[in-house]
Amino acid sequence: MTVIKVADEQEIITKLSSYVEKISNDAILNRGRFFVGLSGGSVVKYLCEGLPSVSTDWSKWTLAFCDERVVPEDSGDSTFGCYNRLLIPKTKLDKNQFIVIKQGVTASEAAVDYNEKLKEAFKSDEFKFDLLLLGMGPDGHTCSLFPGHPLLDEKNLKVAAITDSPKPPPERITLTYPVINSARNCIFACSGAGKADMIKRILKEKEDLPAARVNPENGNVYWIVDDGAAAHL
Fold this sequence. Notes:
Number of helices: 6
Mean pLDDT: 97
Helix content: 25-40%
Strand order of the largest sheet: 1-9-8-5-2-3
Protein name: 6-phosphogluconolactonase
Oligomer: single chain
Function: Hydrolysis of 6-phosphogluconolactone to 6-phosphogluconate.
EC number: 3.1.1.31
Strand content: 15-25%
Distance between the termini: 15 Å
Pfam families: Glucosamine_iso
């Protein structure tokens, strides 16, 4: 695990973008494609501000979601909806490069369908992402994996449905640890004093919280934190 401390949110965006540029170009050079998993929350803001300046072959990108809310794409809660509005117009990305959830079905049906779409994209049952861009909630959750939830121990499903998310909306799909911890790279980007206590609990006290369980077997995990978030480290 590598912790990168920067001054402020603007520097988080700069640092995050430089990592994405390097990892995407390495993946394209070595394997011909770049598979990236996106998150919602503040990660949307960081990426929509930073990615347009990245130098990469956008046509070689495949973008999926670490988790997604089971809502219509035009809902303010749709993570894809946010990227569709805020990122696609600023880059050469095409909507068809995003693997999106099926509309108008239950969370369980959406999870099964998403798993099939990932199989098709990876041409394999193993979903080895080049990069997962992760957020961390105030309770230490990441993706839609929440403290004390049975999904923390899911070993078989690679994409799971959750219908009782403690954070609304309740119905979501999420990648599980077998996928997360097989990624080549995972990056958390956290800003602000509001995250400082949880950052300390995870990075310093090694508390068993969902975000702390992100530990790729043969990959790297980076935490990019600003002065506010790193206050107790």
